[in-house]
Amino acid sequence: MRRTRLTALIAVVFLGASVMDASAAVGPSPKAPISNPFHEFTGYPGLKLGYGTVLAQCQTYDNAGNTNPYAPFTTTVDMIVDDPINVGAGVNQGCRTPQNETSIAVNPTDPRNLVAGANDYRLCCVPSGGTLRNDGSGWVYTSTDGGATWRNVKLPGLGPDASTSIFKKVTSVGDPAIAFGSNNTVYYANIAFNRVDESDAIIVSVSHDGGLSWDEPKFVANSGGATFFNDKVWVGADPTSGRALVSWTVFKQSSSRGYISSRILAARTADFGKTWGSGIDVSGPYLYNQGSFPVFAPGGAVYVAFEGAVAADGYNDYLIVSKSTNGGKTFSQTVAGRIADESYPVDPVLGRQVLTGLRFRINSFPSFAVDRVTGRLWATWADNSLGTTALTSSQVFVQSSMDGVTWTPKTRVTAGSADRIYPAIAANDGNVIVSFYTREYAPSGEIDYAYVKSNDAGATWSSTVRLTEESSDPAIQFTLGGFIGDYTGVAVGSDNVAHPVWTDFRGHPGVTSPNQDAVTTAVRLVP
Asked: Does the N terminus or the C terminus of the chain have fewer Cβ atoms within 10 A?
């Protein structure tokens, strides 16, 4: 996420989730400072995003009566149960509560057992800026029937109703990431933060029964004050042992120099999440990074993919993959391929990279996966290398590797000029799926969710397959249409059935008014 030939990464907590935003930085002394991650955008007269003096767009619908112009779902399953109306203050007051930024994992020994999560704002109330507001509270969605039905459970000890004293200071959570380990163990990672006093933490919750019940969460890392901010967490787990690894970005700034660095750190466990080690350096010589994603490969190697700035190329961004052969104790880095994200336009009001004609922020950090049968690593991202700042053509690209060191060339897997963003990837036994948002069915401003797949380990790819039954308005809920989450997810089981998850803006037609809901469907990769 950069402006031309200048790289910097900004973390800003926005409406209960983290924002990976970009200014300018060159070399070891970045030129452009960043604001504190907790300072919400105030550049628009009369508007403070996150607290809100402007009503959300969904106020145009009868939320109590659940007025909804969209047709009922036919193939899509809404994962949200009992989605209430936001009774707190802020930009979504009076609207059905949103869920966005989706993550999912599948049990390696039971492909019908799925665990998913999202930023979930259904609980009130958090004191914030003189108001009481709904905020992220940490919810898990569990299915035992392959995604046909879902159970919603709040993670204990997190969010506005946190009862455990150690977590009272971090009243909001977001950036959910989920991984399945062995013995029905599930790891659910969040960032946690306080919108007023600048405290933040990396937190992991663990389930030992496939996501039906959860232990009290564990602190993995934390900080306070304006110097450091821990952000954009992800978790990977070994499906054959009690090992797991959490990685995240540590944004560093100072009052005199502004943004200084954004390194990737990690913490590991070998006892199913009971204890976690201290921070491990993952990014090595690369100082300006974001969006890390760890996986455990067959044979014991641990890999972490992220987007990072490379000094040798004028601090342009690349896909960088770190590899560990000693269980995550130390890492070495490989520059795998170019991520060209400098040509996205910047919204004049929100100051963040966007698509032509839309307002929500975008990013180019990778989604990462390993094929547990073949051992092949897969990375995907979207960038605007084929578009311009005047007219975006954001497309989805893929690279793969058998060892994390030698990578295939950057391969485009989407066709045409319509924008695609937020891809997610999963693979099993040479069958690969990449799912993403697309504008190809409604270029005027509405978007859909779709996928492409390969059944020959990436040698050929299918044409786009649409998953949403109708296009919908991504600006339906947050003020100015500025937020839909930072990523989507997909997982595939040993049965070769994939489960994409995304934020759908139709809400649940026939049940609720339009709003941001976490939804899914099942995709059989092999006929």
From this structure: C
For 440, other C-beta atoms within 10 Å of its C-beta total: 18
pLDDT (average), residues 459-482: 93
**What is the pLDDT, as a whole number, of residue 167?**
82
CATH class given for the domain over 2-524: mainly beta
Tokens of 265: 């750190």
| pLDDT of residue 56 exceeding 90 | no
**428: amino acid identity, one letter:** N
Would you say 266 and 324 are in contact if contact means Cβ atoms under 8 Å apart? no
Contact 370, 381 (CB under 8 A): no
Calpha distance 238→489 (Å, rounded):
19
The token pair that represents 421 in the structure block: 């963003």
**Contact in structure between 134 and 87 (CB atoms under 8 Å):** yes
- AA identity, residue 384: N
Cα separation of 233 and 223, whole Å? 14
pLDDT digits (tens, 9 = 90+) for 366-404: 999 999 999 999 999 999 999 999 999 999 999 999 999
* Lookup: tokens for 518: 């976490």
8 A C-beta contact, residue 383 and residue 339: yes
State the residue for tokens 């485009």: 412
How many CB atoms are closer than 10 A to CB 168?
A: 11
DSSP symbols for 463-488: PPEE--SS-B-TTSSSGGG--S-S--
Condensed to tens digits (0 to 9), the pLDDT of residues 114-140 reads 999 999 999 988 776 667 888 899 999
- The candidate with the shortest Cα–Cα distance to 462, out of 449, 452, 472, 470, is 452
pLDDT per position as a tens digit, 335-365: 999 999 889 999 988 888 999 999 999 999 9
Q: Which helix (H) or strand (E) holds 400?
A: strand 395-401
Sign of CA dihedral 46, 346, 487, 66: positive
Cα separation of 186 and 217, whole Å? Answer: 12
Q: Can you give the pTM of this predicted structure? A: 0.91
Run of H or E including 266: strand 258-269
- For 482, phi then psi, to 5°, come to -90, 0
Distance CA 262, CA 265 (A): 10
Q: Smallest Cα–Cα separation from 192: which of 242, 248, 150, 147?
A: 248
pLDDT value at 268 more than 90: yes
Whether the per-residue pLDDT at 16 is higher than 50: the answer is no
Sheet-wide strand order for 139-143: 99-107, 110-120, 139-143, 151-154
pLDDT above 70 as % of the chain: 88
